[in-house]
Predict the 3D structure of the following.
Amino acid sequence: MTTTEPLQTMPLRTSPPRTIRGRTARERLRGVSATTAKYLSLIIASILTLLPLSVLLFASLKTAPEYAQTGPFDPPENWLNFDNFVTAFTSGKMLEGFVNTSIVLVVSLAGTIFIGTMAAYALDRFAFRGKKLVFALFLVATLIPSVTSQVATFQLINGLGLYDTKAALILLFMGTDIIAIYLFIQFMQSIPVSLDEAAMIDGANRWTIYWRIVLPLLRPAIATVVIIKGIAVYNEFYAPFLYLPSEGLISTSLFRFKGPFGAQWEVISAGTVLVIIPTLIAFLLLQRWIYKGLTSGAVK
Amino acid sequence: MAIATPGAAPADAPAVLSAPARARRFGGSSRRTDRRRGGSAGRNVLQHLTPWFFLAAAVGLLLLFTYWPALNLFYFSVTDWDGIDLEKNFVGLDNYVQVFTDPRIFSVFGVSLYYFFASFAQMAIALYFATLLSFSTRFSNLFRGILFFPYLINGVAIGFVFLYLFQPGGTLDTVLSWFGVADPPQWLGNPDVVNWSLAGTSVWRYTGMNFVLFLGAIQSIPHELYEAADLDGASRWQQFWAIIFPGIRRVVGLSFILAIAGSLSVFEIPFIMTGGANGSATFVIQTLQTAFTFRQVGLASAMAVVLLAIVLVITWIQRKVFPDEKVDLT
């Protein structure tokens, strides 16, 4: 797959003027209606995408009586009514959720990067007995849908005495990231071996080469993994739901709104908006890298 | 990615690192290292251990968290274990017989069909917009962002967004009333409708992923081809069938296979939105409930093994239909 630069827009196509001048009135009309249809379909799709999110934002800014009296499309009376957000944040224990998610995120990202780059270094730069076997093990592992093996994984976590700890989640996130290793291997293949050899002549050992040369050069691949993995961990629902029942991650904190807030949609909406905002900010800042990372992560 | 959860992505990943390609790379790097080899026996032993030092953590976690549970899954599946009891009684294939004969268990596969059909709509929509936006379009980055963004949103948040949308008298009903629909169905309460509502939510969530994959593939088609087609007077429609579609056939095929695997393992959206009520339980929901709510770990393991087997067969078909050699276009 040659999806290296999915974001890059195509250069403007310069059709020869001859054909434009030679167009008949009917052709021109068809061109205009095609353009209209094109933009119309884009606008309809955008509305369908944004509408469910916008009505939720409206609901989150209404007071309880206002919510009860108005329809979903009525804009809120006061656009700066953030009371629901405060309620959601404090009584929904969202701060705990954000803190826990950050801890799990940072530790498992760091772990994934070190474990993944080291494994990729060994697999790409060494020849050793059993290398094919290790490759095969990683390959076959990608075929096992993690959600199905949860039944047995749970027994393992329980047996290790890690049930209801953040360590369980961190280990699971680190242990199941085979995609990252593939991305690192692919990127490492583009780093010339002559660099390693030069360092070796200068007397560097393998660890120094990995730590001083390979790891810094892998920075772009690391950025990709941080983004893909970061999104995945932030959005992960079932693992924290199952393994960490007493503390909330951001997903499970939000899920708990279903109980105590029941039909208080103005509070639930506010909580939902609070969870979406960090994703939106990350998306706006990192657009290009997110597209790139996801295409290479999913197809490569 | 079709309706697949992000977790389903790995199933696809190795497809690209083809066995022959890996062998070539493997051979290549071994030659490189062989050149550096040599030295005393002691250094050799150390050299043999060095790669394992780098691999230890990754392989250890892999064995512990992937292979050990997978092996246990097979073991549990032939016992009547409840997950707590110290004793696990061997029951042979009883659990498997139950999976295939108990209509309450096997019939939930029918629910997958809704998601499977929805994923066609999803791919068609994604392909249409990917084609549109690969040609020069005003605000194309804005439209791309809008179409793609739902894929990044937290599953629980999406569940709430659509619970709100589907409420009786809620957003969707209000919109429909403008068009004169006075008696809308209970979107999530009616067993005849609920799976369509949930599958629709899935389309909303995952179209962006398909869209970005297709867009990336379309943009890797050499630009000169369009120019040549333009000079020959080919219409956009002709260009699509002659250039774009053949150019991205592989990604479309891959998405199709992933749609099958994904619709079998649908879990998050129905679990969050309905908890599997009103006939919306999928096979995965059923499996996890059997294990953790009803404490029938043996039976649940058999269900997981069956799902695993189906996914493996689908992946095998994928490899047959789309051999690796054609993947490495780069």
In short: Chain B is about 70% helix and 0% strand. The two ends of chain B are 21 Å apart (CA to CA). The first helix of chain B runs from residue 19 to 36. The CA atoms of residues 2 and 256 of chain B lie 7 Å apart.
